[in-house]
Amino acid sequence: MQIDADTVSAEMEPPPRHQRPIELRHGRWIGAGRQTRNRVAVALVLALGLGVLVWALIDGVSPTTKSPASSGPTPAAVAAGVKDVLRATNVVTTAGTTMSVAMAGLHTLPTVVLVSAIVQPYGAALQRYETTLGRATLGTSAAPWRASVVAQAQRLSQSLATLPTTPSAQLGGWISSYELETAELQSAIEALESALGHHSS
Fold first, then answer.
1. 3-state class of 30 per DSSP?
2. Cut 0.90: pTM above it
3. Which residues are 24's β-sheet partners?
4. Residue 47 exposure: Cα atoms within 13 Å on the Cβ side
5. Among positive and negative, which fits the CA dihedral 163, 165, 168, 169?
6. How far is the C-alpha of 130 from the C-alpha of 126, rounded, in Å?
7. I need a labelling partner for 179 at 20 to 30 A (CA). Which of 5, 37, 84, 163 fits?
8. Phi, psi of 107 (to 5 degrees)
């Protein structure tokens, strides 16, 4: 087979610069397609990297949505809450005094019906006091004292709920225990009043 000299010369002649292959192998210029593919791959990688960089910059400087800071109660709300609590305190304290006087004035053997008639008004005032204390807006410094009063009031309400089923033979013990718990509640109420800036007389 005879090889045309012009053909060999064409194959050996370097291609134009914009199509220049990367190497001459076995007498032929090869690699132009590979070089083009490499350039495309590099371009894609650079474009992807640039996109990631731009996204990171935008994300870094864009304003983030923040939840509004929780603010404490306003002075007006606290003042109104203190006023409500002190009003309810006067009511429950008066009811407790009335109950204690009535208990001390018993001259007959106490019965469940008689004791219930004496303590029920105090129990009703106590429930209203618990409700007012629970919904009132108070300063954070009064939180421990409010929790103490609530715990004492709940204990007293639970004791009052056991009165209808208390045997007559145990009624005296129930009265003594209830009066003691009432005194403890009153001490807790006075401590709360002091924390609220009001000193009971």
1. strand
2. no
3. 29
4. 6
5. negative
6. 6
7. 84
8. -115, 0
